[in-house]
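pls read this stuff:
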Amino acid sequence: MTTAASLPPASEPSAPAPSPPQPVPSTPEPEAWGLARRVAFRFVFAYVVLYAFPYPLDSIPGTEFLSTASQSFWETVVPWVGKHVLRMEKDITIFTNGSGDTTFNYVLFLVHLVLAAGVTAVWSVVDRRRARYVKAYDLLRVYVRYLLALTMVSYGFAKVFKTQFPFPSPERLVQPLGEFSPMGLLWTFMGYSPGYNLFTGGAEVLGGVLLLFRRTTTLGALVVIAVMVNVVALNFFYDVPVKLYSSHLVLLAVLLLLPDVRRLLDVLLFNRPTLPVEQRTPFQLSRRERWGVLVLKSLFLAVVGWSYVELRMGYVARNGDSAPKPPLYGLYEVESFTRDGQVLPPLVGDTTRWRHVGVNRYSRASVRLMDGTVKRFSVKLDAGQGTVTFSEGTGEQAKTSVLTSSKPDAEHWVLQGPFQDGTVEIRLKKVDESSHLLISRGFNWIQEVPFNR
């Protein structure tokens, strides 16, 4: 009998040889910008900062002096440029006011363009070796987002709270349409409807709020462009002197939209797929730092938002459509007009006799004469003395007349006394504003036939 030879003990499995370390993939270097792109960025960066300065520094409490100093600087430079560089025949003496399309504003626009071009030229020489401006672009994008967002929210609140376009004043109700300026017609159209103000203002606020967040910036830019292109059209075609400013707001929104134009065209026009983009920030932050920035951002927006609301609510309480009106507010028809003891009949073409008087909520009176001429006065009621002061003009050149005022009943108002080289007695009757179709018509769900008057 044979026995099997003993098998050698199984060997222990050897440990696998360590694999060579794999190289850590490095973040791909962003592609270099072309020369035209770099020059364009330098110019846009310089122009935006020049145009918006001192924002956002002037938003900090106690820094209002920056805006005053900046305005004073340009009010010195721009007239000098107009006189010595542009050789303008008339000196620039009218500065920023209710109009944003003054000669001062257009020359300032030109100065900004020239200065931005100069900065671009110097920057292009000094920094000619830089291949791209990724971080600077991200910072500019944040700057423009907040600049445009807060502007849109501010303008939107002016419509939501209906402080930009007041309801048509009493004198508007009897003003012939042909006497309206294009801007006056637009202001009356907008002021008539609280609902349309809420709609347009809400769209402006929506666009502004969307711009405050990176993820919704593109959508916000689209909303702002849609809203502001309409505003620009109204400003141009109704001769509203905010053409320069509103056009700048559209261009700022376009600047924010530019990086996504190709992707939007792929999806909406060319029916091609597109890839998501990285929502990057100018600086890499830790989780704790991101939370800190979020808290600061929330506090900043809360303070700014509340200041806007408080400002508009205060204005509404003082001058809004539902605010208390001055005692003399209303539209009055002149029943009789006596001058120097002579009763003047209501003859069309008379250059002396009054026809209507409208007193608005700002205590300004518009007196329409029988020949259609309109005289404008500020009026001040002294209830204790029983007088009303009519002032035509402003400053030292103002012509002032103090008339005895009485109201024999709720509908009538009697004025007596010296007025512009004569003695008058004027009896006026208050007109019920609801007698005008514009006021009484209202909204109707059902209309069997168009009611276009």
Remarks:
- Residues 174 and 295 are 54 Å apart (CA to CA).
- The chain has two domains: 35-270+290-319, 330-433.
- DSSP finds eleven helices and nine strands in the chain.
- The longest strand covers residues 330-339.
